[in-house]
Amino acid sequence: MASQQINAPASEARSGAYWQRFAVSFEFPVVFTRALFAPENRTLADAIARLEPDRRHRCLVFLDAGLAPELAARIEAYAAHHAARIELVAPPQTMPGGEKIKNELAYVEQMQGQVFQHRIDRHSYIIAVGGGALLDVVGLVAATSHRGIRHIRVPTTVLSQNDSGVGVKNGVNLNAVKNFVGTFAPPFAVLNDFDLLASLPPREKIAGMAEAVKVALIRDPAFFLWLERHADALAAFEPDAMATMIRRCAELHMHQIAHGGDPFESGSARPLDFGHWSAHKLESLTRYHLRHGEAVAIGIALDSRYSVSAGMLAQGADDRVCFLLENLGFKLWHPALRMRGADQRPAILQGLREFREHLGGEFTVTLLTGLGEGVEVHELDEAMMMTAIDWLEARSKS
Ligand SMILES: NC(=O)c1ccc[n+]([C@@H]2O[C@H](COP(=O)([O-])OP(=O)(O)OC[C@H]3O[C@@H](n4cnc5c(N)ncnc54)[C@H](O)[C@@H]3O)[C@@H](O)[C@H]2O)c1
Ligand SMILES: [Zn+2]
Question: How does pLDDT run across 347-394, given as a tens digit for each residue?
Fold first, then answer.
């Protein structure tokens, strides 16, 4: 038995158990570029050739239907220009964007069918060009086909460039529960092209900024002040301000994943999910009529107010958070906050139970002790939360 227990601590060796242990380290580039598919831009070709520079790589591309129709032709021209490295196995496949693609498992099966049909193997690439929803689904397809195919993300929304695209999660919704089916699977590369945001509707541009406010509030006081100072420029989608906001937000998310100690969330906390317990519930209560970011903005306002009511955050700081979100273009009230469940209890509170069930372990949510300082708590008072909802409603009417 000695050989199996070579590195086992004495206590483990005594128990007679085999103690399997290994670590896998992940690394991938996150590139900020412009004109990603211009033939002279080598970013994508270099990312594909990173591990095997002398091979031609089979690539299957999925495109978000919200993108400009001519993008498919541009990607084909790019692949032709870089034919020594890139072989497109089929023309880019357009798929529905938005929550629709996450709500129907049939899309996952359809895409896995394409992986099979085009003989995409573990040294080939699946490239997803789209918003957070499409990236989540393609990420799941890539992670589960052949137990894991290299996956390159090209995020095309503010939210996916500053948050979800640089993360390590994927997933689809089932039984009206967000991300019920999914995996943790780091991508092979993330290529953020600011120019792809040009066609994004204003509502989507605003929605993505909620994640920047969120991460500033829990991690970075200076970024929060920066957001306050640049709120007008951001509300006007001024390019320099938008690019800076996206980059800083992405950096903070990447830092948490790499250095937070729990990239695959095996503990009880989801440290980056401030404001999200209610946001996920609001999304499903409104049948995804509210965008993820819009729901997050309401969730941030609610948990900021709750933090003040709980005596953790200074009086008035909740108003400051709300002013910033409103200046960026968010509405901080939705009638779904008043919906009742079958048991006549406020339906939004069911979000707390679902948050707990998703994580398991000890209930943990993040609240604020400062504008830039998050703290984890393990209890929320439901009556006090309802009072925070009353406050939000009264505020929306004043
Ligand atoms: N995996 C994670 O870690 C993580 C983190 C946060 C959010 N998410 C998920 O991301 C999803 C939300 O993503 P999102 O906010 O990026 O929006 P989205 O993917 O839902 O897209 C919104 C709309 O914009 C369209 N679109 C996308 N790019 C476009 C472009 N450049 N021009 C014009 N239209 C475009 C889409 O077709 C869609 O209609 C949610 O499902 C959320 O749960 C995942
Ligand atoms: Zn989010």
Answer: 999 988 888 777 676 888 999 999 999 999 999 999 999 999 999 999
Task: Tell me how far the alpha carbon of residue 366 lies from the centroid of ligand 1, in angstroms.
Answer: 24
98: left (phi over 0), alpha (psi -120 to 50) or beta: left
Which stretches of the chain are DSSP H helices? 10-15, 43-48, 71-81, 99-103, 106-117, 132-144, 158-162, 202-219, 221-229, 231-235, 239-259, 276-285, 292-309, 317-328, 347-359, 382-397
Say what the pTM is. 0.93
* CATH annotation of 202-397: 1.20.1090.10
Ligand 2 geometric centre to CA of 192 (Å): 18
Domain ranges of the chain: 30-199, 202-397
Residue type, 273: D
374, β-bridge pairs: 368
Q: Which residue has the tokens 């970011």?
A: 293
Q: In angstroms, rounded to a whole number, what is the distance separating the alpha carbons of residues 359 and 213? A: 24
DSSP conformation letters of 107-168: HHHHHHHHHHHTT--TTSEEEEEE-HHHHHHHHHHHHHGGG--EEEEEE-SHHHHHTGGGSS
| 175 φ/ψ angles, rounded to the nearest 5 degrees | 55, 40
Q: Whose CA is nearest to atom 22 of ligand 1?
A: 98
**In the structure encoding, which two tokens stand for residue 206, read together?**
């605003």
pLDDT digits (tens, 9 = 90+) for 137-190: 999 999 999 999 999 999 999 999 999 999 999 999 998 788 899 999 999 999
State phi, psi for 60 to the nearest 5 degrees: -115, 125
Residue nearest to atom 25 of ligand 1 (CA): 66
Task: Report the residue among 140, 276, 292, 358 best suited for mutation to probe ligand 1: largest number of ligand atoms under 8 A from its CB.
Answer: 292
Pick 66 or 353 by higher pLDDT.
Answer: 66
Q: Please give the C-alpha separations between residue 390 and each of 184, 232, 305, 351, 387, in angstroms, as whole numbers.
A: 37, 28, 10, 17, 5
Task: Enter the CATH code of domain 30-199.
Answer: 3.40.50.1970
- Inter-residue contact 164 to 155 (CB < 8 Å): yes
Mode of pairing for the β-strands spanning 365-370 and 373-377: antiparallel
Give CA–CA dist 293/276, Å, rounded: 10
Token reading at 199: 């066609």
Ligand 1 atom with minimal separation from the 97 CA: 37
